Amino acid sequence: MSLESLKTRLPDYARDLKLNLGSLATEPGLTEQQRAGTFVASALASREPSVIQAIIAEFAPKLSPEALEAAKAAAAIMGMNNIYYRFVHLMGEGAAENQYKTLPAKLRMNIIGKPGVDKVDFELWSLAVSAVNGCGMCLTAHEHELRKGGLSAEQVQAAVRIAAVVHAVAATLDGETAMAGSFAAAAE
User: Fold this and answer.
1) Are 3 and 54 in contact (CB under 8 A)?
2) What average pLDDT is seen over the chain?
3) Closest by alpha carbon to 79, among 141, 8, 132?
4) What sections of the chain are H helices per DSSP?
5) Exposed/middle/buried for 163, CB within 10 Å: 0-12, 13-18, 19+?
6) Which of 44, 45, 92, 136 suits 21 as a labelling partner, its CA being 20 to 30 A distant?
7) C-beta of residue 6 within 8 angstroms of C-beta of residue 50
8) Is residue 93 classed as helix, strand or coil in its secondary structure?
9) What's CA 45's distance to the chain center, in Å?
10) Which residues are marked as active site?
């Protein structure tokens, strides 16, 4: 499966997603590694098998083996961190005293310190996954590191645009599959 076959699977009502997917695949504001890794990490965060297969087929060949592993690692570690730090953040909104902010996480996160690729690229992929997973605390932390690392607001925005479109494509295809299943069940 390729990016083109993924676009052809999208229904007509999702035409904007098709167009955005195509234009973001050649987003000039990011390096090829940053762009490809952002697509891979975002697809893994989407959890939709056909999106993952198409994105991996399209973008994995553009990454070194180390970069592909790092993009996958960003999706994995942020899958954990986004849940934990969203909890910490949300507990602070309603509580007079948020004890959880002062407690150590006690979760292994070694990959963040030694991702095997340029730290900025790993942070970018982590930001994209955090956008998909909706963790404000992680978004703030990764955006800060990216800006400190020299990326512009436009580059950060490009990664989040990729994450948003990949997530929307996954949600659309997942919804279409569910609707097809319910129509089939109703016809029986």
Assistant:
1) yes
2) 92
3) 132
4) 3-9, 15-24, 32-46, 49-59, 65-94, 110-113, 119-133, 136-148, 153-187
5) buried
6) 136
7) yes
8) helix
9) 5
10) 135, 138
pLDDT of residue 168: 98
This prediction has a pTM of 0.91
Instruction: Using alpha carbons, select from 80, 61, 53, 27 the residue that is nearest to residue 173.
Output: 53
Q: CB–CB of 93/74 below 8 Å? A: no
Instruction: Give 104-110 contacts, CB < 8 A, sequence gap 24+.
Output: 107/80, 107/81, 109/77, 109/81
Chain centre to alpha carbon of residue 87: 19
> Look-up: residue for tokens 């970069």?
67
Residue with structure tokens 């934990």? 84
HSE toward the beta carbon, residue 98, CA cutoff 13 A? 14
CA distance 65 to 47: 21
Taking Cα atoms as reference points, which of 186, 149, 172 lies closest to residue 9?
172
Query: How far is the CA of 111 from the CAs of 96, 107, 131, 132, 136, in angstroms?
Result: 34, 12, 19, 20, 21
- Kindly indicate the confidence band of residue 110, based on its pLDDT and cuts at 50, 70 and 90: confident
The answer to whether residues 58 and 148 touch, using CB atoms and an 8 Å cutoff, is no
